[in-house]
Known about the structure:
This protein is of the alpha+beta class and 110 residues long. The protein has helices at residues 19-27, 59-65, 68-75, 106-109, and strands at residues 11-14, 31-37, 44-50, 80-84, 91-96, 101-105.
Amino acid sequence: MEEVYDNNGAIFLQSRYDINTLANHFKSFLHVSREIAHPETGQEVIQEGVLAYYDPRVLPEWLESVDVEQKKSFLMMSEALFYEDMVDRLLLHSYDSNGIQHEHNLSEVL
C-alpha cells in the first residue's frame, strides 16, 4: 500500500472470494445506463456507457451517486474496499459490504 498510495492508482479490495469469482461479479457493472434530461429538448432519455469503476478517480464519485441497494450489490463480495482521498491525502476511505462508508487516517492503516 505504501508503494502505490498517492499516485491516483490504487483501489484495495479485501474479499474471501477468488479472483475469477470477483472478476465475474464486477463484469456485470461495466455497462451502465441512466435517465437524464436531453440537453436540447429536456425530455428524459436513456444514456448508456461504460463505468470505469476500477479507476480511483471514478469509483468514489459513482459510489456516492448510487442508492444503498446498488452499493450493496456492487460490494456484496467484498469485506472492505479502500481508496485514497483525492483531496486530503492523509485520509483513506473504505466501504463495507453493507455500503457504509468509513474514513481512516492514513497513518492508522499503513
